């Protein structure tokens, strides 16, 4: 070796570079691009409850976190997909090449993770146009409660005043658009 000082400077610089930066942080970054598509298109994309765009597009997600991606469009049932972090294979190479400091940098930025699934493509189902009362629109429950109220009133277990208030409360809850019609019918 003709210049031992130059050699040691080069070694020190190499050690400094590998210990300061994680390999995955440099190569992959702390965000991952996920393509998102839907059928039909032009559906809203929500990431963790926040609107981020419409399909088709690509979204940038932080590798360090798990996410919930929801696709919604008026007239269709919404669908959600969990996008979760998974340790990438480069982690082990980074530990060998960059040491624990390089791995620590990647861990802190989230660059050591890959998000799965890497693409999202969903077919949205149209909402049913005709709903029966049993489908959960509240009509069955409303009628059942009205009948129970009628039975209480007919059995003289509640007063006329309690019956009127109870009926009004049920209409306010289930059929507010009919309150004036019901009040008019009582008079």
Layout of SSEs?
Elements: H1 4-20, H2 23-27, E1 31-39, E2 44-47, E3 50-54, E4 57-62, E5 67-72, E6 79-87, H3 90-109, E7 113-116, E8 120-123, H4 139-154, H5 160-174, H6 179-186
Parallel strand pairs: 1-8
Antiparallel strand pairs: 1-4, 2-3, 2-5, 5-6, 6-7
Helix pairs in contact: 1-3, 4-5
Your description of this structure?
- This protein is α+β, with helices and mostly antiparallel strands and 187 residues long.
- The protein has two domains: 120 residues, no CATH class; 54 residues.
- 43% of the residues lie in helices and 25% in strands.
- The protein has six helices and eight strands; from the N terminus they run ααββββββαββααα.
- Strands 3-2-5-6-7 form a five-stranded antiparallel sheet. Strands 4-1-8 form a three-stranded mixed sheet, with no helix packed on it.
- β5 and β6 form a beta hairpin.
- α1 crosses α3 and α4 runs antiparallel to α5.
Give a quick account of the main beta sheet: strands, pairing sense, barrel closure: 5 strands, antiparallel
Which regions have little confidence, pLDDT < 50, spanning 5+ residues?
Answer: 16-22, 130-136, 181-187
**Rg over C-alpha atoms, rounded to the nearest angstrom:** 31 Å
Distance N to C terminus: 110 Å
Shape: elongated
The number of distinct structural domains comes to 2
Proportion of strand residues: 25-35%
- The mean pLDDT is 74
Helix tally equals: 6
Number of E-state strands: 8
Order of helices and strands: HHEEEEEEHEEHHH
Give helix % range. Answer: 40-55%
Helix and strand composition category: alpha+beta
Strand order of the largest sheet: 3-2-5-6-7
């Amino acid at each position: 070796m003709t210049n031992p000082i130059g050699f040691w400077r080069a070694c020190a610089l190499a050690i400094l570079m590998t210990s300061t930066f994680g390999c995955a942080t440099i190569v992959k970054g702390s965000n991952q691009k996920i393509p998102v598509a839907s059928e039909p298109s032009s559906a809203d994309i929500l990431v963790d409850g926040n609107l981020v765009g419409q399909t088709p597009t690509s979204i940038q997600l932080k590798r360090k976190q798990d996410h919930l991606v929801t696709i919604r469009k008026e007239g269709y049932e919404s669908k959600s997909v969990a996008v979760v972090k998974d340790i990438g294979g480069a982690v082990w190479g980074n530990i060998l090449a960059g040491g624990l400091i390089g791995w620590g940098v990647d861990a802190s930025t989230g660059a050591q993770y890959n998000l799965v699934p890497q693409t999202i493509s969903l077919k949205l189902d149209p909402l049913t146009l005709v709903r029966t009362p049993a489908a959960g629109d509240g009509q069955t429950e409303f009628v059942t409660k009205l009948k129970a109220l009628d039975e209480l009133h007919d059995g003289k277990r509640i007063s006329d005043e309690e019956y009127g208030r109870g009926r009004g409360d049920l209409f306010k809850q289930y059929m507010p658009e009919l309150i004036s019609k019901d009040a008019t019918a009582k008079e």
